[in-house]
Amino acid sequence: DRDVTGVQTCALPILELLAGLTLVGAVAVNERRVQYKALDANLRASSNALLGAVQEDVNNAVRLDLADKTLPRDSVLRVTDEHGRLLGSEGVLPAMAFQPDTFQYAMVNSRSYRFFTLMGEKIIDPDQPGGIHHRVTVVYGLPDGRVAHEVIEAIRFFAICTTVLLGITTLLLVWLVRRLLSPIYALANAASEITSTRWQFDPPSSASRFVELRPLTSALEKTIARLQRSFEQQKRFTSDAAHE
Predict the structure, then answer these.
(1) Pick from 63, 44, 72: which is nearest to 139 by CA?
(2) How far is CA 13 from the centre of its chain?
(3) Largest CA distance in the chain
(4) Is the dihedral of CA 155, 160, 163, 169 positive or negative?
(5) Per-residue pLDDT, 118
(6) What is d(CA 4, CA 7) in angstroms, rounded to the nearest whole number?
(7) 100 and 118 Cβ atoms separated by less than 8 Å
(8) Tens digit of pLDDT for each residue in 129-148?
(9) I need a surface site. Which of 20, 94, 119, 196 has the fewest CB within 10 A?
């Protein structure tokens, strides 16, 4: 049936579209995970670099030396010692409790930031036995808008590729389905030409090329032959009855 075939042909692009949307969704989830993993690694590495930038100061104290450190322009940081003394800072940190060794979100100047808190130990004056230990807390944050940007770019790229691929495969599938169904249409047209005065059934050559259609062709030939015999018997019986 051509209507059923049309519905099936239309269903193929829909299924491909659903598969494409699923693929794009999976790419978005994976890209977001990868980007946040890279951001977290950057935050952790920068926090350790800031801990390494804590240097000895006068009176066995420590200070933050950023002379040879290049941080991103949007960085927000705060470095304090065990007494809460501020060793160095950049930007304004939000008023919230930062948990050690934890990644946290916060809003800074209406922008979403991701922070990492590192608690480490800085030893100065190593010439003394055991040195002097300082507990240093580093809170460092970067805006996570870059992650959303990268995810959107990845979605856009894969959406374009999926759309192009979907269009090509849809055209190929429609052409292939019509090509595979054309012998069935030809076979149906040949069968529809059978009448009470014309019983000759000539299966199209295209149908005989397909092994799958041979049983259908044979069944049509046998059915038409039985109908012809039955019709001729009925015709003879009617003629004999009329003669009697």
Answers:
(1) 44
(2) 18
(3) 139
(4) negative
(5) 95
(6) 5
(7) yes
(8) 667 888 999 999 999 988 88
(9) 196
> 3-class DSSP state for residue 113?
strand
Chain Cα centroid distance, residue 65: 45
Tokens found for residue 45: 């590495």
Tokens of 59: 């009176």
Three-state DSSP at 115 gives: strand
Those residues whose C-beta lies under 8 Å from the C-beta of residue 143, and which sit 6 or more positions away, are: 74, 108, 111, 112, 113, 114
Q: Which residue has the higher pLDDT, 86 or 211?
A: 86
Amino acid at 114: R
Cβ(43)–Cβ(118) under 8 Å?
Answer: no
Measured in Å, how far apart are the chain's first and last C-alpha atoms? 47
Residue 139's Cβ-count burial label (10 Å; 0-12, 13-18, 19+) is: buried
Span 87-133, pLDDT tens digits: 999 988 888 889 999 999 999 988 999 999 999 988 877 566 667 88
In sequence order, the 6+-apart residues with CB closer than 8 A to the CB of 186 are 204, 206, 207
Do residues 64 and 78 make contact, with C-beta atoms less than 8 angstroms apart?
A: no
Gap between the Cα atoms of 124 and 135, Å rounded: 11
Distance, in Å, from the CA atom of 226 to the CA atom of 232, rounded to the nearest integer, reads 10
